[in-house]
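Hi U.,

Before I forget, here's the chain from the pilot set. I'm dumping it here mostly so it's searchable later in email.
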Amino acid sequence: MQGGRRIIRMYAEPIELQDERFGVMFVSRDITKEIEIDRLKTELVATVSHELRTPLTSILGFTELLEHRHVDEEKQMRYLSMIHNETTRLERLVSNLLDVQKIESGHAQQDFKVESLFELLSDILEIHAGSTELHAFHFDCDETIRVSGDPAQLRQVFSNILNNAIKYSPDGGNIAVNVSCDDDVIRIAIEDEGMGVAPADAERLFEKFYRVQNEQSRNIGGTGLGLAICKEIIESHGGTISVCSELGNGTTMTVELPIVA
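Structure:
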């Protein structure tokens, strides 16, 4: 189904009248969407089962340790921190699934406003900079640039991209956010020095439930929904989102939005 390929199901029935065959009737039906829906359902079940089971197992295990064993205060705090992290992971999974459902059903509500892009990105960067000691953040944006959009959804997009930049560069490094204007387009490029992805994987990063299948990515975890949601949001704002990446040499995510006069 990639690259415009279609899947056609064909039926053939003989045409007979008074036990005499006059010909054959052929019926063809495009079942591309049906096959795609079945694939997505299968991936949804597999992804949700895995992403739910892993944190639930951790939460159950640490809860039983706290309930049935005497542990010192330091271990208690460590176990509680792990339970909190796994609960947050579950909350993120549920939120992503709800976002997908709202977007695909057309029930996602948007409240467009014109606001400072500099302030929006500054707030998001401040939050993410406080979550890591291994990364150095660099920000270049004209303070006069304004953007039209749903503030909550735009924050969701840039938070997701920055979170990925941090998550997929576990050894740390620089993360640069550069904003430029070209004619009627605002271009926001977010570049990291992380593990990067191969070109074949880069082409599919915005597909629902797609995850890069290598050992490093599997250890990091994720639902494969974040970037698909980002794409839907940005396109609903009249913009585009793209990726440029090289395995082992980092990733640059570029968001383009209409400029506000």
